[in-house]
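Researcher: Please generate the 3D structure of the following complex. Treat every line as part of one assembly.
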Amino acid sequence: MKMGKGVEAAMHCCLVMHWLEGRPVTSAQLAEFFGLPPAYLQKTLRALVADGIAQAARGQSGGFVLARAAGAISLMDVVAAVEGRSPAFRCEEIRSAGRSGSLGARSGQCAVAHAMSRAEMAYRAALAAESIADIAERTGSVVRERTVATLV
Amino acid sequence: MKMGKGVEAAMHCCLVMHWLEGRPVTSAQLAEFFGLPPAYLQKTLRALVADGIAQAARGQSGGFVLARAAGAISLMDVVAAVEGRSPAFRCEEIRSAGRSGSLGARSGQCAVAHAMSRAEMAYRAALAAESIADIAERTGSVVRERTVATLV
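Model: Done. Output below.
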């Protein structure tokens, strides 16, 4: 099971935007700050904007701010914005293919798909219970102060 | 987040081997049964054998049986055999790269990586709590009977 690298970058960008308290930060600044390619970060930020997590700052060129309070942005929101909402396990109804499918005794959801989906719900619930504000709270205040001093 | 299609096939193969109660089934039979390419299923079965979930039946050519009771094979075992054990979210320590890394105030595990890892543990725990025998129990007995009649 794999998750794209964009998720980590998106989480840290949200954390930085939260710390900047409405002062816009450009994708170029964030790219330099995290040592990431600007085009890559631009794409990640656009995904956050598309899902209403970040927004282009008014009257600024290329600057971004969080679109809502960090406490109202869950890690699941960020993962969904960057990775999409499709489940990791996609049931292809193998049981209904080939000779198996002609047995004619299948009904309702497959027990395999059901169990996989339940596990994924547990994963999503754990991510939904955690916000960017929670992450900020567990990150040292020295990091926050030095990040703000570097970017403002 | 994506999971390979092999997982679904592996789960259903385990279910079939469980129902066959030690009577070997070949990858060709399973491939025909589920309408899947034989080479694909052969690879999936080899992964199950490598992780001690299935084994080549003694004295048979190409037949497979479960290597242990279905109640002792969790869905997590099957996922791990087919997909590997790497976490979906891989922390690249973005916080320690670029200018961010030179701030010099980072210590311990990143709060983002920690939260992502906790969620993944919830996912794995849910899959570990569910066995192939549990799935079999929730699948109609008519399906089991017809599957056995078709494959024996």
